[in-house]
Amino acid sequence: FGKIDGIRDALVGAVGGNDESLSSYKIVTGGMLGTGSWEDELKVIGPPNTCSSSVPAELDDSIEHISSKQLPIGPLLKESTSLIQHKEGLYLIICGVKGEQCDSLEVLSTVQAQGNIVTLWTCPNISGEDQYAENISDHMIACEKETIDDLTSAYQEDRRFGAIVVDHSVPLTMIKMMNSVVRMGCGGEWCREQTEDPQVRLLSNHALILAFITDSSEEVRTRKHNFLDRVRKELGEDPLFRAEIVMKNTHNEGVQMEVGIISEDEDFFSKLYNITRNVEVTAGLDIEVRKILGARLKPQNDYNPRFFRLEDYDPEPGKKQYSEQSPIGRQSLFQLKVKAGQEISRLPIQNALLVACSTVNHQVNEVRTITEIGSGIISSALSPEGSAILVWDGNSRVDINLFSFDDKEENANAFLEVLTTKLNMDVVQRDEQPRGTGRVINFLSDIKNTPLLEQEQEKQTGPSKEDGKEYPSARTRNDYDGDEF
User: Fold this and answer.
1) DSSP code for 81
2) 314: pLDDT confidence band, cut at 50, 70 and 90?
3) What pLDDT sits at residue 458?
4) How far apart, in whole angstroms, are the C-alpha atoms of residue 448 and residue 439?
5) Which run of H or E residues covers position 370?
6) Is the pLDDT reported for residue 476 higher than 50?
7) Where is the composition biased (Basic and acidic residues) (predicted)?
8) Residue 343 carries which DSSP code?
């Protein structure tokens, strides 16, 4: 995959082109099983990254990566402080039962003064085996009252909670209880916009909330994420973001942690990118952003939108592009998958490709098949009428890139019908686009002799002798010798 740039430059040079005349795009197919370079290629597949960051491009070999027994809490927690806008606010750390290890508290204690940290411990009678007791509801009600008292007595009039961190050691029963606290709103203290008296608001403006999740149970993970979603809905208004990310130790398989984030930072996306990038580089972690949700927009009093009419826009650039484009063919991308219970192999795939080409009148004069890459094959069929490139992943998927100078959709349909019938496959995905010059976005059949094109041609060439209009003739591929497309 890393050789694409070199191949592209060689092709451009072979036809006498240069960077100024080149326009290109990348198609990422399903790949092939059995290749030895897929791990490296996975890092570079996709669109180029245009975000700016001060992070070094490569890992420093001197960095000591975390061991398999360590959880990657420290790096992310320290980096996430950039999302805290109220720097003078208090840190509320929700931990497990007092006396148990609380990693989040240990990390923050190394970077924050003790006077800035408020610790909320899980009630002991709702943790461990006690969470399965028959009277657990009574215990949770008592814990809820105790928690509310602790929260309301902890905040200071001029210093409210600027960050809340839920440690991975917090049991599900404590999360359920906190859900109840948020829903009830502590009489309004949780959600500042619900409280008119600023003296009883617990959260500062632009608060940050983090929840670290290491539970193996899907139910527990979901409920902990739901706690953050409850807070998101209570806080309510934009700008507000909730993100779910997954952190993996690239050097020790099996070490994984999920993190939920709530932030009111308007620059959340750029800061989240920098946070995850920094953690990946400095701690040797692989981070995946799984989900990002927003909030409801703030109401605008006396909102009076402006409605734009068609004549408010300058149509000339669009008309110019429309008339100057010159389509010369159709490119079709197919992704096929073997039907359940069926199998495919190399020879039937190659034969089906040749039959499909003949069906659309492609007189194939060159066929090449490559088998040395992995478990599958790459097969190409070239003809004066176009080309077809097929990639089989060695298992159940086939990707085809078909180009034909004849841009009729019926040809692509016939080609696809042969493959699906002979190989017993279903179509998973299909994409089609015109190819040509002049920033082409339409097929020839879409623009030939249309009123708009007629008007543009009349402006450029004048009316024809017969009916006052001059219609463009369809160009053949021979007319495009030397054109860039």
Assistant:
1) G
2) very high
3) 56
4) 16
5) strand 366-370
6) no
7) 456-485
8) -
> How many beta carbons lie within 10 A of that of residue 436, not counting itself?
22
* 73-293 is a CATH 3.40.50 domain: yes
Cα distance between residue 148 and residue 183, in whole Å: 13
Residue 450 corresponds to which tokens in the numbers above? Answer: 């249309």
pLDDT digits (tens, 9 = 90+) for 192-229: 444 444 434 567 677 788 888 887 777 778 878 888 88
* 256 phi-psi bin (left φ>0, alpha ψ -120 to 50, beta other): beta
User: Mean pLDDT for the chain?
Assistant: 77
Look at 55 and 270; give whichever has higher pLDDT: 270
Q: Give the CATH number of domain 327-452.
A: 3.60.90.10
The rounded distance, in Å, linking the Cα atoms of 47 and 346 is 31
Helix, strand, or coil here: 461? helix
* 280 burial type by CB count under 10 A (0-12 exposed, 13-18 middle, 19+ buried): middle
For residue 401 the two structure tokens come to 């890139």
pLDDT at 477: 43
- ω into residue 198 within 30 of 0, thus cis? no
Cα 278–Cα 287–Cα 258 angle in degrees, nearest 5: 120
Predicted structure pTM score: 0.52
Q: Which helix (H) or strand (E) covers residue 161, if one does?
A: strand 161-166
Domain spans in the chain, listed from the N-terminal domain onward: 73-293, 327-452
Q: Of 286-290, 367-371, 406-410, 423-427, give the lowest mean pLDDT range.
A: 286-290
